[in-house]
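ENCODED BACKBONE
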Amino acid sequence: MFGSAAQAAAPLNDLFIVPEEERHAAPDFVIEDLRGGTAGLKDYKGKVVLLNFWATWCMPCRAEMPSMEAAWKKYKERGFVVVAVSVDEGSKGRIETFSRLFDLSFPILMDPESKVSDLYKVSNMPTSFLIDRNGKIISRIVGSDDWASPEAIQLVEKLLAP
């Protein structure tokens, strides 16, 4: 399902974008969010989504969080959303502490049993998926990236263009 979109940690300007006619629908899910409610992919319908799978123990995940927060703050009013799915096991206290430490304001969802990460065939952290406004997967990014880089800004601007 995701093979043609696989991309190993390459600069975003070399990112493979799946042609529109070849895109597959992103699998929907509903899981607990950090605030005690639930959220799923359908909650972000009509938006460009950066769906990021991560863990507090993952150093590359820690490295990319500040730039994801910057991208979220810059583009959230234009229809861009960062959805971070933590695969940490155990209590959510560690995730809450991490979120405060990095001053994260984007939605954080919890997948302690890795049901959603398994659904997306995620085996390495971090792994991100770009999902278009129609709920289809644009690309898969394995490894961390700088989401505040000129390449990322250019990519997000392109994806948000009417």
